[in-house]
Design brief:
The complex is a heterodimer of chains A (about 300) and B (about 250).
Chain A lengths: L1 H5 L5 H15 L3 E5 L8 H6 L4 E3 L4 H13 L3 E7 H7 L1 H10 L5 E5 L17 H6 L5 E3 L7 H11 L3 E4 L16 E4 L6 E6 L3 H8 L4 E6 L7 H7 L3 E9 L4 H7 L6 E7 L10 H7 L4 H12 L7
Parallel strand pairs in A: 1-2, 1-3, 3-4, 4-6, 5-6, 8-9, 8-10, 10-11
Antiparallel strand pairs in A: 7-9
Chain B lengths: L2 H13 L17 H9 L6 H5 L1 H11 L14 E4 L5 H10 L40 H14 L7 E6 L6 H12 L5 E7 L11 H6 L4 E6 L3 H8 L8 E6 L7
Parallel strand pairs in B: 1-2, 2-3, 3-5, 4-5
Helix pairs in contact in B: 2-5, 4-5, 4-9, 6-7
Classes of the chains: A alpha/beta (about 300), B alpha/beta (about 250).
Pfam families (chain A): Transket_pyr (PF02779)
Protein name (chain A): Transketolase
InterPro entries (chain A): PDH/Transketolase, THDP-binding, Transketo_C/PFOR_II, Transketolase-like_Pyr-bd
């Protein structure tokens, strides 16, 4: 826990840079592939490991293709850019140059879903986790605090399977240790509705439930989703609060609870293009992901519907 | 450039006893690849693209690549990446001729129980370095492979990747060409089979796309095996190398 508490001043991106720099020094199989984004932050690492810190310029297709080739020779590539360029622009390279080759990599995206709100749609990435759901067995981590980043990055790099780390400037007040199984943060007792908050959505969710009879569980690992934990905690009402496209995890939760009558509310980023700038906090509010918006949705969901007629 | 020489050689081969040697070209029925190719073909019509790559593939596997069926997993093997994954018929026939796959596999190519698809899958076929089929992926993977070998101090093995001139339409190739040239990726050789099949062509020639980015280049007759051999071993040690293998119009790359 000491590591979790000492990095509170650093951003998730800072923690990623520090840990990757350390991994490059500690593990000779580690390689880093960049497409200019964050290259200046890795300048010293590139000086020390010129053969394993590879900046290909603004070439995201090549960035992922190179990662595939590195993995085929036995290296363990970490690939990094803004989430939309890493995941959406290079989607076919992820599908073919990694998965189809049976090669694996750790992809680290920043900016999700709308950290750079003033930059507009081109820099938004609400669909990234949904895209990984179209592929095979990707582990997806959505840390909710900078203190979670280092441990997750070290674990995924050591695991030798493919993983996506989705970093953001949005964060909770505190970090939660663990591999990503559901952690009960607020227990409302037997029969209460279960709210699962993913990554940086936790604090807003806790504020939203306030005096409502809702148990709140947290995870920073939506894939693979903690199905056993969900089944242990879920009653008949389940609420998902995710910082990417609303409903992304609906399929997983529905499958996990297929043998039980249940109601599911999925909250997240909407599909409509707002064409607005402002701040990430503004976008949270516009998508109903601030405490007030979440509470409105929760109250509507939990209030017994008026019987028509 | 030496098509006349090729023809002369073929005539001489046809006229003279073989003395235990193979005919020069896999297109000759007495060449060990020819009957294997017929097994893949199984009475079907092959497009000209199958024949356009045969000489290149044979020269690579017969005279250049330091890889055998026993060394397909050795870290210091040469790599051959078939980027234009539709050129599989000759590829499979050459792999069978060199013992990487049993010739029996050729008989039901593309069938429901076959491991040999119309595009190759590296997880299914011994000796196949990449799965390909969607154009524009092999060169990026080759750049990564060359970088990975270099980062591990494996300075002897070389990475060869085969593309077509129409495949160069895909922009991903140009990301790789520019970067490999800029960083002097000297353990990489690209082979572009050029039969002028790109819809808008490459005015000024295919090789210029590479040389302007710092590659060395050789453009040769794609059916002249000695010229191909010279070009495929003509790298200099400081820069990536491209061999443009020109074949007849009408053979689709």
């Amino acid at each position: 826990m000491s590591e979790l508490s000492t990095v509170a001043e650093l951003s998730m991106r800072d923690c990623f840079v520090d840990t990757t720099t350390a991994l490059l020094a500690e593990k000779p199989r580690t390689a880093l592939v960049l497409a200019d984004i964050s290259a200046s932050l890795f300048a010293s690492a590139a000086e020390r490991h010129p053969d394993r810190v590879l900046n290909v310029g603004i070439r995201e297709q090549l960035m992922v293709g190179v990662a595939g080739g590195l993995a085929l020779t036995g290296l363990r590539p970490i690939v990094h850019s803004y989430a939309p360029f890493l995941v959406e622009r290079a989607y076919e390279q992820i599908k073919l140059d990694l998965d189809h080759q049976a090669a694996s990599a750790v992809l680290v995206g920043i900016g999700g879903s709308f950290d750079r709100a003033e930059s507009g749609r081109t820099h938004f990435s609400p669909a990234d986790v949904a895209l990984f759901d179209t592929l095979g067995d990707w582990t997806v981590h959505v840390p909710g605090h900078p203190g979670e980043v280092s441990g997750l990055l070290r674990a995924t790099v050591a695991a030798d399977t493919s993983a996506y780390l989705r970093l953001s400037i949005l964060q909770n007040d505190r970090a939660y240790a663990g591999a990503g199984d559901l952690v009960v943060v607020r227990d409302a007792g037997p029969g209460a509705a279960l709210l699962v908050a993913v990554g940086p959505m936790l604090d807003a969710a806790l504020a939203a439930v306030a005096d409502l009879p809702v148990t709140v569980a947290y995870t920073h690992r939506p894939r693979p989703f903690d199905v056993a934990g969900l089944r242990a905690l879920a009653g008949t009402e389940v609420i998902l609060v995710e910082p990417y496209l609303a409903g992304t995890s609906a399929r997983v939760v529905s499958a996990a609870l297929a043998d039980r009558p249940h109601r599911l509310l999925t909250l997240g980023v909407g599909r409509e293009e707002l064409r607005r700038y402002g701040s990430a906090e503004d976008h949270l509010r516009w998508h109903g992901l601030d405490p007030a918006g979440l509470r409105r949705a929760l109250t509507g969901f939990l209030t017994p519907a008026a019987v028509a007629g | 450039m030496s098509s006349l020489a090729t023809i002369t050689t073929q005539v001489a081969e046809a006229a003279a006893p073989l003395d235990g040697r193979h005919p020069v070209t896999p297109l000759d029925g007495r060449h060990p690849v020819a009957p294997l190719l017929e097994r893949v073909r199984a009475g079907r019509d092959f497009g000209p693209n199958v024949y356009s790559t045969l000489d290149v593939l044979w020269v690579l596997y017969d005279r250049i690549l330091r890889v055998t069926p026993a060394t397909v997993d050795e870290p210091d093997r040469d790599r051959f990446l078939l980027s234009k994954g539709h050129a599989v018929a000759g590829y499979y026939a050459v792999l069978a001729a060199k013992g990487f796959i049993p010739p029996d596999w050729l008989d039901d190519q593309g069938g429901p129980g076959s491991l040999l698809g119309d595009h190759p899958d590296r997880t299914l076929v011994p000796g196949v370095e990449i799965g390909s089929g969607s154009l524009g992926h092999g060169l990026g993977l080759a750049v990564g492979s060359a970088l990975g070998l270099r980062a591990q101090g494996l300075l002897d093995p070389r990475v060869y990747v085969l593309l077509g001139d129409a495949e160069l339409d895909e922009g991903s190739n140009h990301e790789a060409i520019a970067y490999a040239g800029a960083v002097g990726l000297s353990n990489l050789t690209a082979v572009v089979v050029d039969n002028s099949s790109a819809t808008y062509g490459w005015p000024g020639g295919v090789a210029t796309r590479f040389t302007v980015n710092g590659w060395t280049a050789a453009t040769v007759d794609g059916h002249d095996q000695d010229a191909l051999h010279a070009a495929l071993t003509g790298h200099h040690g400081h820069r990536p190398h491209v061999v443009v293998a020109v074949v007849n119009n009408g053979e689709q790359a």
